[in-house]
Design goal:
The chain has 74 residues and is α+β, with helices and mostly antiparallel strands. It has a domain of 37 residues. 23% of the residues lie in helices and 24% in strands. The strands form 2 sheets. The chain has a 3-stranded antiparallel sheet. A two-stranded antiparallel ribbon has the order 4-5. The chain is rod-shaped, with a radius of gyration of 24 Å. The mean pLDDT is 77. It is found in: Nucleus. This is C2H2-type domain-containing protein. It holds the Pfam family zf-C2H2_6. InterPro entries: Znf_C2H2_type.
């Protein structure tokens, strides 16, 4: 979260601006930025999940940790 200053349109006056580090949207009030951060984010498009496959029996696991536990059984 950054604090910046911008010209207010009135001669010589500036307004303090608080901006979101994620989307760079700017807010004049710090509490408005806080409210922005508490909003639920839209889910990102699902990316392809990498499968971890056992080289001995070809079972697939979602995590490397699951595969590691499985390998101890061989």
């Amino acid at each position: 979260m950054g604090i910046h200053y911008r010209e207010d349109g009135r001669e010589g006056e500036t307004t303090r601006v608080h901006s979101c580090r994620i989307c760079l949207k700017a807010f004049e009030k710090y509490h408005a930025l806080g409210g922005h951060h508490t909003k639920p984010r839209k889910p990102k498009a699902e990316k392809e999940v990498q499968k971890h496959q056992c080289s001995m029996c070809h079972m697939e696991f979602d995590t490397g940790q699951g595969l590691g536990g499985h390998m101890r059984r061989h």
